[in-house]
């Protein structure tokens, strides 16, 4: 007997909103989250939800889908979780289950943009020195961002998460320059300590954050560079950019992976509503 009409992946804010919607409609669903922290947030959703905690590889996903035979699988993972998205999509193909990707809209036009590739790093840094300090420099990935920051001076506020720390440790004197803002959960703090980020350089807080708080942190730690991702409205992206401009500092933005086709939050709710009849 198959219990679930929908299997939903994602500890994101959109994932939590869809979980609440599924619960309100009484649609049998399984919510899959990677961490205990994600589970805690889902457990705050009203109603009774079945939650599976822990990272699944592609084979584990496909076995789950074959066993449960849901009407469809919703991928509401973070826009930058490209590897997870690829695994979910492939597992759906193997299990012959319909795959639905929830897309978080980008905040286009929020900042002036200048494209950057690895060969242009030195020239981009020079231009940033000559132009207004809030110029947004784009990097394709965290490795490229680390190379760019190696050629700069000043403290760096890192808001890209603990998983992105390793490449940043190649920056000279990174223990002194990096101020890393991460989720306040034990495994994340342990990972930061193992990387040499500790004391006042480790800022453990749950977001999203207001412009005022971002600005206060920038001022408190003498930040000259803000390293971030385009996390959209739900991730407090505009508040970070506004604070950086107000503080007259530079922003290094890691580009989103190429966006595949998908559905908006409202479109996904309509499809879920159809299951409820």
TrEMBL record:
InterPro entries: Precorrin-6x_reduct. Coiled coil: none annotated. Pathway: Cofactor biosynthesis; adenosylcobalamin biosynthesis. Keywords: Cobalamin biosynthesis, Oxidoreductase. Signal peptide: none annotated. It comes from the Bacteria. Pfam families: CbiJ (PF02571). This is Precorrin-6A/cobalt-precorrin-6A reductase. It comes from Diplocloster modestus. The lineage of its organism: Bacteria, Bacillati, Bacillota, Clostridia, Lachnospirales.
């Amino acid at each position: 007997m198959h219990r679930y009409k929908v299997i939903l992946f994602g500890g994101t804010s959109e994932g939590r909103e869809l979980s609440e919607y599924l619960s309100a409609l009484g649609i049998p669903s399984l919510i899959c989250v990677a961490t205990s922290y994600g589970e805690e947030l889902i457990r705050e959703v009203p109603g009774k939800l079945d939650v599976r905690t822990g990272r699944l590889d592609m084979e584990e996903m496909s076995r789950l889908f074959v066993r449960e035979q849901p009407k469809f699988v919703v991928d509401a993972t973070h826009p930058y979780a490209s590897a997870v998205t690829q695994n979910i999509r492939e597992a759906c193909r193997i299990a012959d289950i319909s795959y639905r990707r929830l897309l978080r809209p980008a905040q286009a036009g929020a900042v002036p943009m200048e494209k950057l590739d690895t060969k242009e790093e030195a020239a981009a840094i020079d231009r940033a020195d000559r132009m207004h300090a809030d110029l947004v420099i784009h990097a394709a990935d965290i490795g490229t961002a680390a190379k760019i920051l190696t050629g700069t001076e000043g403290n760096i506020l890192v808001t890209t998460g603990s998983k992105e720390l390793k490449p940043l440790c190649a920056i000279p004197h990174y223990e002194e320059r990096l101020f890393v803002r991460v989720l306040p959960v034990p495994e994340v703090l342990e990972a930061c300590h193992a990387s040499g980020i500790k004391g006042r350089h480790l800022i453990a807080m749950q977001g999203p954050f207001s412009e005022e708080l971002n600005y206060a942190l920038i001022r408190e730690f003498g930040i000259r560079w803000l390293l971030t991702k385009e996390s959209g409205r739900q991730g407090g992206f505009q508040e970070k950019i506004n604070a950086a401009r107000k503080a007259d500092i530079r922003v290094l933005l890691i580009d989103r992976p190429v966006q595949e086709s998908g559905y908006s939050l409202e479109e996904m709710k309509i499809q879920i509503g159809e299951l409820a009849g």
